[in-house]
Amino acid sequence: MKFKKGDTVAVIAGKDLGTQGRILEVIPRKNKVIVEGVNRVTRHEKVTMDRRGQQTGGIAHKEAPINVSNIALVCGNDGPTRAGYRVEEGTGAKVRICKKCGGEI
Description:
about 100 residues; mainly beta; SH3 type barrels; six-stranded antiparallel sheet; two-stranded antiparallel sheet; 10 strands; about 50% strand
């Protein structure tokens, strides 16, 4: 998977089209990622009593997973772009590069 935790991505399809955010979690087995501020859902949590006698629960908003086909990596120079790989000659390490400008991501 070409996406990593902490990458900045742009949504290219769906209800949050055009929104940018950081990746909070990557779920490679399901081919999904959780992006900060994107695909927010509402959860109605059960009201319970905690140890101090205060009620917890209510309506909570959180981010739901989004498919990786609906996001694009954001390059600092070019905006949304595709990612590629280049192998460094001296060390043999794989480095992600921007397909538009050729710079490292």
